[in-house]
Amino acid sequence: MYDLFIAPLTETYFQKALIGGSIIAVVASVVGCLVVLRRMAFLGDALSHAMIAGVAGGYLVMKLLFSLEAHAPGMLLGSLIAAITTVALISFVSRISRVKEDTAIGIMYTGIFALGVVAVSIFRHYIHIDLMHFIMGDILGVADTDLWVSAFVAAIVLTILILFFRHFQITTFDPIMAASIGLPVMFIDYLLTICVSLVVVSAVSMVGVILVVGLLITPAATAYLLCDRLDKMMWLAALFGVTSVVGGLYLCVWLDSAGGGAIMLFCTLQFLVVLAVAPKYGLMARWLRLRNLIPQQQVEDILTTILRYEKPTPMSVILQYVEQEKGIKKALGSMIGEGLLSEAEKGYSLTDAGHREATKVLKAHRLWETYLESIGTPQEELHPTAHQLEHISDRSTVDYLDEKLGKPATDPHGKTIR
Amino acid sequence: MTIDNNYVIEVEHLTVSYHAKPALLDISVRIEKDQLVGVIGPNGAGKSTFIKAILGFIKPDVGTVRINGRSAQKTKGEVAYVPQRGAVDWDFPITVEEVALMGRYQQIPWYTSPSDEDRQAALEALKMVRMEDFAQRQIGELSGGQQQRVFLARALAQGSDILLLDEPFAGVDAATERAILDVLERAKQAGKTLVVVHHDLSTAAEYFDRLILIKQRLYAYGPPRLVLREDLLSKVYEGRLRIFSEVLKGGES
């Protein structure tokens, strides 16, 4: 037990990874809520890829001008510039050409990512960036400067999000209303894009280019399955972000695997578990809802059976006439609850409401039978076919049949229609 | 220029163009207060441009739009907007109460949170549309008519005297349509002016006090019986005349 849980905590690298990862996960998850709701997940992916050009540029400029090796703030600024350039190019291309936005995003981010890769390889004697490290991230090798940068970024972004929460909420939910009360919608959109870029840029060093978009959207989407308010969704997303980092890091130590990968694996599993068990929007809830749904057909069959039997009907008779035997107990129970039936010692009988419903279905049945006969359906098929069709018993259908058949008084078997 | 208090929206010689094509051409119309006004016209007639002009989103090529006597671009928030159903993300994590509260956002300074007074105003607005019992529901759980009422409550909470509704009757069943109309009528009686973009000519005469018929140009503005005339409609709806006999009958009854 001690070895499993406490021992890793005593290691400095583990502590740093835990602190740095948690900071980034919190801010990424909170921003991620807006990313998910605005459907800009692909843009987040694009930003993370584009920043390699910025990192290379920032590295190069700081090295050539100030001979500083791997200057973190310089690279951060470079990445930010690259991210914003990408966004500007994307909106430019999708506005002026017939190319749609998703394609424009795809073109621009791969282009700028490629520029970064080419730059890093050309200037490999000046720039000491490990591309693999960049792509996969290295949360277990978090340096103190990374910690400071991420804490700084998190502080800025969280402050902006808390201060302008309502503005982000309304521009996401109803941009036209936002503009109509005079909010600078464009500015708020850009502000959000900058926040996303900042988060992405500082998260890449930990989980890598490929996984960063997952850190952005997965905890947010997990919270989305559980919440009906944006503020709560943000709190919960932050919590899920932190649990992903904690769980992922332990996973990584126990399995001796890659840190970023373990975190995102844990994060995704967490999402799947919530997807399965979420009380309102989960799969199990959905399945239960469907299961508890009593087929209308079964209800109507029970009603007409009791109506035809004309006295309190025992279970055995109902079972004899109702096609679907499965779940009949439950159906009867729910019909009593809805006030269609009452239960006595001798069996079930119809209430007034139940009687009305049953008469309606029976009338439809008899009209359908008359109609089927009029179009030349063989005698022996009349009843079974009408039995299927009687469930189409809405007013306009019934009225149409009645009209068309000249308001018949009796059905083919001589029973009264009314 | 004198301000005539009876006109809440004054549009004068409004021309708006996109790429040298006029979306609206020389529109002049004055809308009196306490009216239920329908804006009708075929697809692509410039109805949405007209909405944007009233909301002050676009700079006209020529002409002016005045809301309560002042330029539309300077009267942000004096016209409350109710979006089209299709434009709303009904899965958005937001409750009925929060939507109504949005009506107050303009008054709340950016550095503070909504006060009790704001929440009270939102709740009052929900009471006016009889939705207070649903305050904590997520908006996707409501029926079509209830959803429309929530957005109406938001517009009421905004305190505007002018409400602009974009196709509130699109994609709702007949019973819901009645329910929405009831709410609009009551808002009118409470002294609001409602401008409603409307698609269905067959109900236009029954629902509205005034109709605006546009297709780039203004073809008519006035009481339904003066607007729903065969000659005007055939000009605007070019050749799709079959439907009109019924509309005209409805207009007379």
Describe the structure.
The complex is a heterodimer of chains A (418) and B (253). Chain A is built from 19 helices and two strands. With 418 residues, chain A is mainly alpha-helical. Chain A folds into two domains: 286 residues, ABC transporter involved in vitamin B12 uptake, BtuC (Orthogonal Bundle); 109 residues, Arc Repressor Mutant, subunit A, CATH 1.10.10. In chain A, strands 1-2 form a two-stranded antiparallel sheet. Chain A starts with a helix and ends in a 14-residue tail after the last helix. Chain B is globular. Chain B has a single domain, classed as Rossmann fold, CATH 3.40.50. In chain B, a hairpin with a 2-residue loop joins strand 4 and strand 5. Classes of the chains: A mainly alpha (418), B alpha/beta (253). Chains A and B meet through helix 8, helix 9 and helix 11 of A and strand 6 of B.
| Count of spatially separate domains of chain A | 2
The secondary structure category of chain A is: mainly alpha
| CATH architecture designation of chain B | 3-Layer(aba) Sandwich
Per CATH, the superfamily of chain B is P-loop containing nucleotide triphosphate hydrolases
Number of helices of chain A: 19
Top keywords for this entry?
heterodimer, A: 418 residues, mainly alpha, ABC transporter involved in vitamin B12 uptake, BtuC, Arc Repressor Mutant, subunit A, 2 domains, two-stranded antiparallel ribbon, 19 helices, 76% helix, B: 253 residues, alpha/beta, Rossmann fold, 6-stranded mixed β-sheet, 4-stranded antiparallel β-sheet, 9 helices, 25% strand
What's the arrangement of secondary structure elements?
The complex is a heterodimer of chains A (418) and B (253).
Chain A: H1 2-9, H2 12-37, H3 41-66, H4 72-96, H5 101-122, H6 131-136, H7 144-163, H8 165-173, H9 175-180, H10 185-224, H11 230-255, H12 259-277, H13 283-292, H14 296-309, H15 315-321, H16 328-337, E1 341-344, E2 347-350, H17 352-374, H18 379-389, H19 395-404
Antiparallel strand pairs in A: 1-2
Helix pairs in contact in A: 2-7, 2-10, 2-11, 3-4, 3-5, 3-10, 4-5, 4-10, 7-10, 10-11, 10-12, 11-12, 14-17, 17-18
Chain B: E1 7-18, E2 21-32, E3 36-40, H1 47-55, E4 62-67, E5 70-71, E6 79-82, H2 96-102, H3 116-128, H4 144-157, E7 162-166, H5 174-189, E8 193-197, H6 201-207, E9 210-215, E10 217-222, H7 224-227, H8 230-236, H9 244-252
Parallel strand pairs in B: 3-8, 3-9, 6-7, 7-8
Antiparallel strand pairs in B: 1-2, 1-4, 4-5, 9-10
Helix pairs in contact in B: 2-3, 2-4, 3-4, 4-5, 6-9
